[in-house]
Design a protein that fits this description.
The complex is a heterodimer of chains A (744) and B (153). Chain A is α+β, with helices and mostly antiparallel strands. Chain A has three domains: 196 residues, Aldehyde Oxidoreductase, domain 4 (2-Layer Sandwich); 174 residues, Aldehyde Oxidoreductase, domain 4 (2-Layer Sandwich); 304 residues, Aldehyde oxidase/xanthine dehydrogenase, molybdopterin binding domain (Aldehyde Oxidoreductase, domain 4), CATH 3.30.365.10. Chain A contains 19 helices and 28 strands. The longest helix of chain A has 28 residues. Helices cover 35% and strands 16% of the residues of chain B. Chain B has five helices and five strands; from the N terminus they run ββαβββαααα. Chain B is globular. The chains are: A alpha+beta (744), B alpha+beta (153). Chains A and B meet through α4, α8 and α17 of A and α1, α2, α3, α4 and α5 of B.
Chain lengths: 744, 153
């Protein structure tokens, strides 16, 4: 996407302004439509009217600016980065800007989703325009005051100037500006003139975070609020038959024990579910036992005291069954073709040599540090919901339907989220909270323990890939990728990712096994494992072809003509530049003795990333020492935030590739807390050095794309050090101890 | 139910709770000190870290019955007028992503630095290994502990 300085939006209805009773200017705009994922800017926003505005810029009479942002913050940094873009074009010092979580308008919002690394990418044009339009209004107001042509005035750092040398602060003209027409066709800044974008801005919530102020969903309280803990079936495939709550009810802090589930079943039995809400639904058809108590501890204890019996309602599945079913899909003939170029069968029939590998991954829980929780209060007047959810819009719709209420009655307030990683896209805990509050007629807070969280079930599905390449006369002539996954398959343009377009005969196919274990998006869905499989495969392929692994990628990229195939959105040029930057910064191929390097490059979420991992061997096992990351995400809005996302994504990718292991036995998750489920810890972390490709292209997201290449780079480094080819995650489970230098 | 007296962030408080209630839930539910976080409930993640006489402990796994008269500091009591050097370092290096685990990280780091004011790289990694950060902001946590040590010396 080109970086544009003029955008042909109709601003007539895009922005609305009004004077504040207390003095000052209020500018309303739609933060969320600005970030609509389904439409590519320029967006037709001429149909908007005032009620569609959900974000506001307030400019006070002292010139200080408050930006009310309703965008969900899960740790990806948009609550800082998005207002930076507005402030840049508004042209105020960043120190004069404060950011508040906007009051949420569940009646009118349109895209209030944190997911897919898309907030910055889609907000870019509209946010700049919002700031620039506000700035022009202030200039126009000053020009009227001075009785000069606005074209002769300029503004910078919150100060308006004219050619006579007069100056006015923004605050001096806000009341006049509030009564002016909203101007059209304002100019946007040139990249070289940026003063805020491209400079480090510290997380706007930093002070609250480091001093322990209430900020997260779990911290939210109201007077008279009771706590609720939900007992769900221990295994997928089971439903409740009966329960004995006598011991729980005898505990002093337990107020009541109830069941829920009736409303969920009625919702699921509807002929037609609202498609815009349905994707976030993870409701089950069983009754659940809910302990209501005065404190969190009361309900944790109360739940343990419940004696429940369960019966099998559908198949209780085990990991061995999944592994077997996924391999059967790959061996079978019922795969769906997702992309096909040339003639793959001919290429393989004529090959001198064929390389084929099968890669297997387990399920993974998200394990947000803040366990799932939500506040709900259902009264005759309204349904009030407060907490951490990535999809408040869908949650409101489902709750309205569950409780047979008008959508206008449902109000969702969002809190900061203690991690998302995809888990909070699914609102199951919101619906449970609403059903409990409806039954109790009292405000309640649904809480989950870690055990609830790891077993209540939305997981990255287990996925198996089989990749094959045909080689003829020392060249790759064909490439076949087959995906077998639990419940659903790779989405969107993933079948068109590299090496689509680079290999003449190319085919991607997929199939799935329908399981009753609930699965969903997990940071960088599908590509979090696919990238490992492909990037490991390329490494091995380079060995078969006897060329440098980086050179193999660069050679293949030469076959791609950017822009020729609209499905292919990665850019060969940008990927090549990114790879070259990683090679340069990592000192690729020139390391000290005892240091082994692995390379990986992957495009996802519109961002190009290349990584080189340096490892050493200690007692025959790999120690990850350093990761060099090159990233092309276009203009870097907030470098400190951007680097934080990459550092986190890379270490998260290494951690899960190395240790993430999650299995089921007869429908029951085998790990439910951190004593047996291993997450990466500080001692296992490498130093991550991030470098950005410098360009003037529109910014793209960073929450996810750092993660996918990490597993492949690590596997390739381990292969370089020990000769072991890892095809299954987690690596720690399959690593063979090697003595240093004992290369196969 | 029983009554317990504790000194929390310099103030004496009295709570009337079940004797097996972990300190964490006394802080969060009874005293409204919600800066101390719940992560795992089994002392594995460090989100609930507070100080007992300056030493880091896991509040999720210590029953209130063993805390009578204890002198507890939580994240809310760490800064008086201004931030402590650990908090300052956290801010300077823009450590948090989601931020949920950071109170526990800061409590662990503060206690560690009071015992080892001049740590090397390995000491820091050992000391902070018990605190999980799911966003994996580990590089910055490590640097911030080193920076805090520098600020304190």
């Amino acid at each position: 996407m080109e970086h544009k300085n003029k955008i042909t939006f109709s601003r007539r209805n895009f922005l609305r302004t009004s004077a504040l009773a207390s003095g000052g200017l209020l500018i309303g705009f739609n933060f969320l439509t600005s970030c609509e994922e389904a439409i590519v800017p320029p967006v037709d926003i001429s149909k908007l009217n005032f009620k569609d505005f959900n974000a506001f810029i307030k400019i006070a009479e002292n010139g200080y600016v408050t930006i009310f942002s309703p965008n969900p913050e899960i740790g990806q940094g948009v609550k800082t980065a998005m207002p930076m873009i507005i402030a840049e074009e508004l042209d105020v010092p960043w120190t004069h800007v404060s950011v508040s979580q906007g009051a949420l308008d569940t009646k009118n919002f349109s895209r209030q989703v944190a997911g897919g690394s898309q907030s910055i990418r889609f907000g870019w044009d509209a946010l700049r325009q919002t700031g620039a339009t506000a700035k022009q209004m202030l200039i126009n107001a000053a020009a009227i005051k001075w009785n000069v042509d606005a074209a002769t005035c300029s503004a910078s750092e919150g100060i308006i100037k004219n050619t006579n040398g007069d100056t006015l602060g923004y605050g001096d003209v806000v009341n006049e500006a509030a009564h002016l027409e909203v101007p059209e066709n304002v100019n946007l800044k040139e990249t070289k003139d940026y003063k805020i974008i491209g400079k480090d801005a510290i997380n706007v919530d930093i002070d609250k975070i480091i001093t322990g102020k209430p900020l997260f969903g779990l911290d939210y309280k109201e007077d008279g609020m009771l706590y609720a803990s939900v007992l769900r079936p221990p295994a997928f495939g089971q439903i409740l038959t009966s329960y004995d709550a006598s011991k729980a009810k005898a505990l002093p802090g337990v107020i009541d024990v109830i069941t829920i589930g009736e409303k969920a079943r009625r919702y699921l039995s509807q002929d037609k579910l609202d498609p815009s809400a349905h994707w976030s639904v993870r409701l089950s058809n069983t009754d659940k036992v809910v302990v209501i108590g005065k404190t969190t501890w009361d309900v944790i204890k109360g739940k343990k005291a419940i004696k429940a019996t369960w019966k099998e309602d559908s198949l209780v599945e085990s990991t061995a069954l999944h592994d077997n079913e996924l391999l059967k899909i790959l061996d079978g003939k019922n795969l769906e073709t997702r992309r096909e170029d040339g003639n793959i069968d001919k290429a393989f029939a004529e090959a001198d040599n064929i390389l084929e590998r099968t890669y297997e991954s387990p399920f993974l829980p998200h394990n947000c540090m803040e366990p799932m929780n939500f506040f709900a209060n259902v009264t005759n007047e309204k349904v009030h919901l407060v907490g951490p959810v990535q999809t408040p819009e869908a949650a409101a719709k489902v709750v309205a339907s569950l409780l047979s209420r008008n959508l206008e009655d449902v109000h969702v307030d969002m809190t900061r989220m203690g991690g998302g990683f995809g888990r909070r896209l699914y609102g199951d805990f919101v619906y449970e909270a609403a059903e409990i509050a409806d039954k109790m007629k009292q405000p309640i807070k649904l809480i989950s323990t870690r055990e609830d969280d790891m077993s209540l079930g939305v997981y990255r599905p287990a996925i198996t890939y089989r990749i094959a390449a045909s080689i003829k006369d020392g060249k790759v002539t064909g490439y076949s990728l087959k995906e077998a996954a639990i419940n659903s398959n790779m989405y969107g343009l993933i079948p068109h990712f590299f090496p689509a377009g680079a290999i003449k005969n190319y085919k991607v196919e997929s199939g799935n096994y329908q399981s009753n274990i609930t699965t969903g998006a997990w940071r960088a869905p599908y590509t979090n494992f696919l990238a490992f499989a492909e990037q490991s495969f390329f490494d091995e392929l380079a060995g078969v072809l006897d060329i440098d692994t980086v050179q193999l990628r660069l050679d293949l990229l030469k076959n791609v003509k950017d822009g020729e195939d609209s499905n292919i959105q990665y850019s060969a040029k940008r990927m090549t530049d990114t790879i070259k930057l990683a090679v340069e910064k990592s000192n690729w191929g020139n390391t000290k003795d005892g240091v082994y390097q692995g390379f990986s490059a992957y495009y996802s979420h519109n961002t190009h990333v290349a990584e080189v991992i340096d490892i050493t061997l200690k007692n025959g096992l790999p120690m990850v020492e350093k990761v060099t990351v090159a990233v092309d995400c276009g203009i870097v809005v907030n470098p400190t935030g951007a680097k934080n996302q990459i550092e986190g994504g890379v270490i998260d990718g290494i951690g899960h590739a190395m240790y993430g292991d999650f299995s089921f036995k007869n429908g029951t998750p085998q790990d439910v807390n951190f004593n047996t489920y291993r997450l990466i810890r500080m001692k296992e972390t490498p130093i991550v050095n991030t470098f950005f490709v410098e360009n003037d292209l529109s910014p793209t997201g960073l929450g996810e794309p750092g993660l996918p290449p990490a597993g492949g780079a690590l596997a390739n480094a381990i292969k370089a050090a020990t000769g072991q080819i890892l095809t299954k995650q987690p690596f720690a489970k399959f690593l063979i101890k090697h003595d240093a230098g004992l290369k196969v | 139910m029983a009554s317990y007296n504790l000194k929390i962030n310099g103030k004496t408080v009295s709570v009337n709770v079940e004797e097996d209630t972990p300190l964490l839930w006394v802080l969060r539910d009874e005293l409204n000190l919600v800066g101390t976080k719940f992560g795992c409930g089994i002392a594995q993640c460090g989100a609930c870290t507070v100080h007992l006489d300056g030493t880091a402990i896991r509040s999720c796994s210590i029953p209130i019955s063993s805390m009578e008269g204890a002198n507890i500091t939580t994240i809310e009591g760490l800064a008086d007028e201004k931030l402590n050097p650990v908090q300052e370092a956290w801010k300077e290096l823009d450590v948090p992503q989601c931020g949920y685990c950071q109170a526990g990280q800061i409590m662990t780091a503060t206690s560690f630095l009071s015992q080892n004011p001049n740590p090397n790289h390995k000491d820091i990694r050992n000391a902070m290994n018990g605190n999980l950060c799911r966003c994996a902001s580990y590089n910055r946590i490590e640097k911030a502990v080193a920076l805090a040590a520098k600020k304190m010396s």
